[in-house]
Structures are given as structure tokens and as C-alpha cells.
Amino acid sequence: MNLRHIHLLLTLHVCFSNAATSESYEETLQLTPLPDGKVSARFAFKTLASTNIEENQDSDDRPQHYKLFPLALGQLLRAQSISELHLSLNAGKWDYDKWGYPIDQSVASGAELWVWMSESSSNGTSVDQRWKDLSNGLAGLFCASLGALDETRTTKPQWAFGPEGDLLSSRSYHLRHAFLPSESVCTENLTPFLKLLPCKGKSGLSSLLNPHPLFGSNWHGIGVHVRPLAHESMELTMTFGAVLDPVRLSRGKRDWNFDDIFGRPIGRACPVASRSLIKVVLPAHAAYQIAPEPTTVDKDGATYDLTMLSFPLTIGMSWPQEERFQHSIASPSNPLSARRIITGGSQSRGDILFHFINNQNVSQDVVCVETAPWFVNYFLNTRRVVVNGIDREDIILETAYTLPRNHQPSLLETVLRLPAHSVTEMSMSFLKSFIAYTQHPPDAERGWDLPAAAISFTLTDSHPQEPARRLYTRNLLIDLPTPDFSMPYNVIIMSSTVIALFFGSVFNLLTRRFVWVKTRATDIVRD
Amino acid sequence: MGLPKPILRLLLVASVLSAYFAYDFCSEYQASQNDYATKASVESFFSARKHANQGHTNNWAVLVCASRYWFNYRHMANALGMYRTVKRLGIPDSNIILMLADDAACNSRNKFAGSVYANKGRGLDLYGENIEVDYRGYEVTVENFIRVLTGMGFARVWGRVADSMPRSKRLLSDDRSNIFIYMTGHGGNEFLKFQDNEEISAFDLADAIEQMWQKKRYNEIFFMIDTCQANTMYSKLYSPNILATGSSKLAESSYSHENDDDIGVAVIDSYTHHVLSYLESVNKTSKATMQDLFSTYSYEKIRSHAGVRSDLFNRPLDQTLITDFFGGVAQVEVLYEQDTEQQSPGESASLEEVPAPSLPTQPPAVLASERPQRMPGFKDRPVSDQQSTNSTLNTVKAARKREDSGLLHAFKLWGSSLLVGLLLFWTLSR
């Protein structure tokens, strides 16, 4: 009787423990030929784990048995009690006018990290301390200098960057956001990225991530997104996006295949992936050829299921009738586009200028989130909004401005209602402070990178469950007045010389005595 | 019959008890003697570091490229060349701290994205597909370098106990680690420039390494530096067990080796190119020594007077293998089946039953000749030391057994005292 009970308990335990750590992994690659001859490739590696770290933060001793979810990332999230995490490392400029809206929103150049974390944690540390520990931990995990995301770069936006996962309504959560615009992305960021994947870049779609062609592309970006889902589960999406240029590589033709753009075919499928798909968006005009035959073709494009194909696999698209690719001037128009520039050539002040273009038939509410370091001071009273040439202050619905204090950055959030079919210009003056010479970066003459402005909006025809879209402007360089860094040396040398000369002269004057020296008579005659 | 009955009984009890106590006292005395022997062996084990070199058990490498900007491409190629060599010879990424002050591979000026080459004609890509850079860009500062070496935490002064610096950025070495420190950049008389903004002086470096010695963070250090007037940088070192080499002497510049026309800048420095091309002939099992490397230095090839400083190093250079510093060679001791039943000689007869140890502390003599050359410390230890270690082990075990029966001992003590008291009372009451 006892043995049967034990057997039953063990079976139940095994069942429950299996159910408690069920994970699934799927990978997708979406290839989109763009109108200007380039190809946008976007890899998405999605792992769904059914243990919600955020939910179990009170029971810290629960073991983390992961098979597919990366343990290094899971331990970091558990230790800092992070609910939602979005990290992106991008290089290049995403051209919205030519390439449309990207699938992954965070395309700002440099590093961007924003997290939602709950007020209370398992070990009682504050939100800011956990933010600092998280950025240091991610810096070690991804070989990026994210330790620089300290209080001089961290902001708390209130109207944008809303949670994209299902956070508990019974808890209060805090948002922390930081940009690092000067961060470079290279193979050392890709190496740990691949090591976190279940197939580790050896099989499946991750084997296509060859650093040499990818880091030579026009735009590339790494993304790590963790969000909690309902019913105690957590979704990790690791993305890699690149915009490759077959016209430049082949010097004229826009035909592409895996050997051209990735440098290698797919050797074999990833055995632990529940789904491994390649989606190719088919161009509107029918003059192309695609090889091999896709598994399914629908309105979204052609889909290849790796479980039904033979390996090594190379997918390619060609335009046989085209001799050379002809670039066209016309570009697709987006519903909304934005630009930001700095005007003014003075070293002490400048003007920042936003351009919003609303191509829709309806007015559009946007939130413009802008952060600036503490030594760039905006003058809100100089803000002017001009719509199609007419001054219109009334389209500013709300403004939230966080003053720069204690070397923390300033945060300006503006809610604007852009009229239909309009070009809106918003301009503002700013003053550049003179900062201490130790606070300049080592290459001070280059200037200071101003992080991208995020423009958050929701299109009227979008799905209600969809999160808000974000547009990013370019990073800008602010030319700060730099001191002459050799001045401390000069001052020391000059003052030391002066003091030595002065002291020496005075000492000689006071203490030197001139005496007659007797010499022999014969010496005088000789002289 | 001569003595009255009670006194006889008392005498009997007293003799039994005294016999018991004598036995107890004797064994305690023996135990205290063994304790003394234990203490002496333990003391000699920990102080052996000062007297005999026990050899290293793990390898670390700290590779620093201290200059930024595209025209210092060759310094980054220097550091990456060393990184590749050290990885090839066996040191894993977790034991390498690579500091690159600028990004050369994915620099927008680099025509060959994701690649760094060290020779004209771009034969070998040093960046590859598997690289981990621990400190990059603005993080390469004098402060961070000294913190890495001395292991000082990065906790805020007013903050938490645990610091949040990740493990991959820390030098987690111990007193059996051999560390290879390589620095390259622009330098001068007793200084090295970091990022064209600040300098580290030879005195700072010497003090940092002395801190490492005091904190027992290294067994031996091999310091290599490739800058102008490099030999002055190691002239101020004063800690033991350091071997240092530099590319040029006082008032002499180090030169670059060659340019690549498509990259457009110099791609490697002359001294580092010479060392790397020598190390190409070394693999993990090589028995090449440091003396072999230093003998290849010549002014004609390197175009500067490369120097060596070995007065702080207490091993002869012709017995110091290159893989002692450049490689991560693991030393494996193979134990055969018959050793587990063999009783180690010199075991003192302990008073209590001690079970035979499952692992012998002394490997059988048949393996002595096959023992690898790389652990001179182990070979140099005299045999009596090993025997005393054996007896130490057994007496430690015996002492532990004694400690385990402390409760029984106390019971015996109190019980016998009680018995004596009762008997006395009974005798006297009669």
C-alpha cells in the first residue's frame, strides 16, 4: 500500500514538474525585397517558457530548469526581478522613406534598453539599483558597454514605451529607459547572442548568421525582447535584422540568394525547433523567379517549412529579364514620417527642428519623446509649431518636461495632434553649457551624441491589441565647446618657470656678494 | 586479608579508575603530539609558496589595446593577434580579458566589415566569428585596467556589499594562476597612453602588481609590452615571479611592420609581428621555452632593441615553457586501479582503526618518470614530505575520530567520577 502511494506521488510529481517547465522554440526568417533593390532580412528566435519569472519572484528558491530558454538570461532576470525587457543594439540608419516601417520597432542607432520592473523585489533592492545591476549584467552577457547606462542617461517616460506583455494589475511597475547612441555593434555582440540560442548557430536558421556579410550591410540590429504573458508564461524573442544590398555586392543586379547575402546555405534544420519557417514577401510585379519551390504561397508571400525541404538549402530570387537594376525616384509613402535636425552654428546655443509629415486623411495624435543630456538646456518658451506655414500652438495637447537635476538628463514629452495631410514643424532653442574638462569623453572634439527622439503613435486602422508604433529619428551630434586640454600642463609649466625665475633672481639679489679676488701680477699682464 | 574490606574495595576501584585514566591520558598525549605534527605539515603546505615553486594550475591573459582612432588599427591588430594565439594554445574566453579601445572591425572606415587583418594582402582574419571583447570603447581606462588587475570591486562607495561587475569582466585569478599581460599602444619613458587622454606610469603598474602579489592573485606573471620606449615600462617592477619583455629601449621608438593598401593604414607592429610569427610554430604540446623565444630577438628583424627582464623571475628561462603563459594546458594525473588497494608507505601505526584511504596521496613510483615536466614544484617536494603528508592525513583522520567520540569521552569522565564518589560514600558510610 505504501509503495503504491509513493509511486503515485512520484508520477504526479514528475507530471507536474514536466508541465511546470514546458518550453517551445520556434524560429522564423522573413525576407523582404525592397523597392530600392535591397533585401531586408529579419530573424526571429522565439522561446516560450511556461514559468513566469516575474510571478515567482517571491519564491526565490524555486529551481530554474530550462532546456531551451537561456539560463544566463533567466538568472539575470530572476536576480533583478525584471518583468519586461527590451534591448536593442543597432548600427546604421533605418530609412523609413525607402524601406517602410520595420517589423521590430526599435531601430534607433546605438543601444537602447528599457525595462518594466515591479516596485518590490525578492531581495528588497530598489528599482534604480536593480536597473544598474541589470545594465551591468547585460553588459557582461552581450559584450556591450551598457555599464554606461547610469543616471546620466536614464529617463522615465510616462506616455510612450508602454508594456507590451501582460503585467499584473495588482502590482505597481516602473519603467526605466536609456539610450547609448555611440555604441557600436560588431561580432563580439553576435557571439554571445548565438550562444544563447538553443541551436547555438550550428543548425537551423541561426547558422545563417555570418558576421562578415551581415556587419557590412546598410543597417543591422540585434534585439532581445522578454515579455510576460498570461497564465504564468514568458516569451523571449531574440531578433536579428539586416538590410542587405545585392545591387552593391553584384555591381548592378538585384538577384539574391543565400550564398550572396549570407555567404552560406543552411546545413540542416534545428532539431529542437517546433517550427522553422522562412517567409519571402513576393514583389508586386510578376517578373521575378524564386527557387526552390515554396511550401505554401498566400497573400503574405511564399513560406518555406524547413522540415519539408532538403539540405543544404539555398533560397534565391532572380529577375532574369533585368540587365541592370534601375533605381526609381518614387518611394512608398508612409502614413507618418518624422525628421529631426539641429540648426545654428554657434558653440553656445542652437535650435532643434522637428518635421512631421502626416499623409493620412485623418488627424494623428503622436507623442514625441526626447531626451537630452544635462548640459543641453531647452527653452520651452521658444517652442514654435508651424503647420503648413501657419503658427498653430493649439495642436500641442500636453507637455511633460523633466528638468535636468544632478547631472540627470532632461526628458521632454509632447503630445501633438497632427492635422490631416500636413507638414508640421516644431522648433525650440537650446543652450549648451560648458562642462568640466574631466567630464568630456576621450575624443571630445567629435562632439556629444544626442539620442534619437521616439515618436509614438497608434494608427486608426490598427488592431486594438497591437502595441503603439514607434518611429525613431536620427542621432545627432552636438558640438560642445571644448577647452584646451593641454592647459593644466601649460599652467603648471609656466607658473613653475615664473616662480623659479622670480625666486632665483630675488635670492641672488639678496644673498650674492661681490668680492674682489686677488690674482698674481703676472696673470693680469697676460690677460 | 591484611587490610580491612572497605579499604580493599577502595583500592580495587582506585586501581581500575587510574588504569582507565592512564590509558586515556596516554592516548590524549599521543593525539596532541599528532596534532602538533598536523599543524607543522599544514603550516609547511601553505608556506611552500615562498620556498618552492609549486607550479601553476590555471592560465589567464589580460590583453590591452590602449589607443583609439582608425590610424591606430595596428594596435588593435596587435592585441587581436595575441588573442588569437592565446586562444589557439588553449586559454578559454572565460580566462581572457580583452580590452580594445576602439572598434576596428565594424568601423565605418573599414572596407572589410567584421574583419581585422595583420598582414599585407589580408591573409588571416583575426576577428573571426567567435570573439568576446570584455572592455570596449570608453571603458578602456587606466582605472578599469588597474581595477581588473587588483580585483578591486566596482561597488559604489556608498552602496551595496556585492558589486554588479559581471564575471566576464573580472580577473578571477588565484595564487596558482599564471597571468600573461600584454599591452600595446603609444608610450614613452615610463608611461603608456590610454585613449590619447590619460597615461599609466610604470610606478602605477608596479604598485598594482605588488597589490596582486600581496593579495595572492598570481603565481607568475609574464608581462609583454609593445610601445615606444617599452622597456622603461617594466623597469620599476619589484614584485617576485615576474618575467618581462618589451619592444624597445629608452629613447628608442618601436616601428610598424607593414601597410595594407586597401585598408590604408599600418596593420601590425614590428615586434608583435615577430613574436606572433615565432608563436605560429608553437602548439599546445610544444616544449619550446622562453629562452628560445628571446634568442630570436634581433635588431635587424625587429628594428629596435627588444629587452628582457628576468631578475624577478626565479625559474631558469630555458626551463620555462612558452605554454606556461600562452597556453591553457591542463595537467592531468592518471590514477590506476591497483593504487586504490595499495597502502602508502610510512603510515604511522595509529591507535585506532583507520580505514584505508580511497585515493592514495602518493602516486606509485612507476609514474614518476612520466610525470609532466611542467610541475617542477611537485617533483621537487622531498619524499619524506609526502610521507609526513600521509601520516598527517591518517592522524588527522584519527584525531577526527577522537573528536567524534568527545561525547563518549565526557560520559566516561563523569560516569567514572560519579562511580568513585558513590563508592567512597558507600565505603565511608560503612
Please tell me about this protein's structure.
- The complex is a heterodimer of chains A (527) and B (430).
- Chain A is globular and about 120 Å long.
- The N and C termini of chain A lie far apart (132 Å).
- Chain A folds into 3 domains: 26-244, no CATH class; 336-478, Immunoglobulin-like (Sandwich); 488-514.
- Chain A has 10 helices and 26 strands.
- Chain A has helices spanning 2-20, 71-80, 96-99, 127-142, 187-196, 211-214, 246-250, 258-261, 487-511, 521-526, and strands at 23-33, 39-49, 82-92, 110-118, 154-155, 173-180, 219-229, 233-244, 256-257, 275-280, 289-291, 296-298, 301-305, 316-318, 336-343, 349-358, 364-372, 376-387, 390-391, 396-402, 410-418, 422-432, 448-450, 454-457, 469-472, 476-478.
- In chain A, a hairpin with a 5-residue loop joins β1 (23-33) and β2 (39-49).
- In chain A, the strands form 5 sheets. Chain A has an 11-stranded mixed β-sheet with strand order 5-6-4-3-7-8-2-1-10-13-12, with helices on one face. Chain A has a 5-stranded antiparallel β-sheet with strand order 15-16-22-18-19, with no helix packed on it. A 5-stranded antiparallel β-sheet of chain A has the order 20-21-17-24-25, with no helix packed on it.
- Chain A is 20% helix and 34% strand.
- The longest helix of chain A has 25 residues, at 487-511.
- Chain B is an alpha/beta fold.
- Chain B folds into 2 domains: 56-326, Rossmann fold; 335-430, no CATH class.
- Chain B is 37% helix and 13% strand.
- Chain B has 11 helices and 12 strands.
- In chain B, the strands form 3 sheets. A 7-stranded mixed β-sheet of chain B has the order 3-2-1-4-8-9-12. In chain B, strands 5-6-7 form a 3-stranded antiparallel β-sheet. A two-stranded antiparallel ribbon of chain B has the order 10-11.
- In chain B, a hairpin with a 3-residue loop joins β6 and β7.
- Chain B is elongated and about 120 Å long.
- The model of chain B is unreliable at 155-162 and 341-392 (pLDDT under 50).
- Chain A binds chain B through residues 91, 125, 129, 132-133, 136-137, 139-141, 143-145, 147-148, 182-188, 191-192, 210-216, 441-443, 485, and chain B through 68-69, 103, 105-107, 112-115, 127-139, 154, 159-160, 164-169, 195-198.
- Chain A: It comes from Tulasnella calospora MUT 4182.
- Chain A: The chain crosses the membrane at residues 487-510.
- Chain A: It holds the Pfam family Gpi16.
- Chain A: Residues 1-21 form the signal peptide.
